[in-house]
Design goal:
By secondary structure, this protein is an alpha+beta fold. Helices cover 34% and strands 18% of the residues. The strands form two sheets. The protein has a six-stranded antiparallel sheet.
Length: 218
């Protein structure tokens, strides 16, 4: 009887410790997301995004277009990339990509943030591991892929629009690319040129496509 009571007590203590640990992790995750919102709220303005170095990939590469799922489960939107952040570091306050979705009039709205790191860059420093932020593992995308870029890890954070599929899901069923044709796409030549940093990580043939397209906009 005493042994049974001891086992029950031990189980209760373990459960309490686990609950406390989970609560602490959840609290830390919320704090990180609050910090991320503070760091990125100004990017509701495309002008501010351009000044910070974010711009659309040039016309002629897949990531220039509004991105939707192949199975009709939702869309992402337009990706504005900061080439200077595409390195071997994942920083919870500095997303490599800002995601804008067109509304029914074509106006772009900031809806999500995306953290991206190429697999070779990450695994070179952290072999045998996966990047993780906000208590969530990144998604792995191999190569070749629809975006015509090397294998990468990514994590979407739907901080500015609710996603019924989950805050960290890649596609959002409430986002549509239907208004993409008339979307007002901001971003300066300076922001677009900054993506040349990213091109250096691509395979030679794909890098050439990016570089030529960027040069055409300069």
């Amino acid at each position: 009887m005493i042994h049974r009571l001891f086992r029950i007590a031990a189980a209760l203590v373990a459960a309490m410790l686990l609950a406390s640990s989970l609560a602490g992790a959840a609290s830390a995750g919320r704090a990180d997301l609050t910090a991320l919102r503070s760091a990125t709220a100004r990017f509701h303005s495309l002008t501010q995004a351009a000044r910070a170095g974010y711009g659309q990939p040039p016309a002629g590469v897949p990531l220039h277009e509004c991105i939707s799922s192949f199975d009709g489960s939702g869309s992402m939107g337009f990706h504005y990339i900061n080439g200077g952040l595409l390195d071997d570091v994942v920083d919870a306050s500095k997303p490599e990509v800002l995601v804008y979705a067109p509304d029914s009039t074509g106006e772009l709205r900031l809806v999500a943030l995306e953290f991206v790191i190429f697999q070779d860059a990450w695994l070179g420093k952290h072999p045998g591991t996966m990047p993780e932020l906000f208590g969530t593992m990144f998604m792995a995308t191999g190569s070749p892929n629809r975006f015509e870029i090397p294998a990468f890890f990514s994590l979407h954070v739907w901080l500015y629009q609710n996603n019924p599929a989950g805050m960290f899901a890649p596609f959002n069923p409430t986002v549509s690319c239907a208004g993409a044709a008339s979307a007002t796409r901001g971003g300066s030549t300076t922001a677009a040129v900054s993506i040349q940093t990213a091109a250096a990580t691509l395979t030679p043939d794909r890098a050439s496509r990016w570089q030529c397209a960027i040069s055409a906009t300069a």
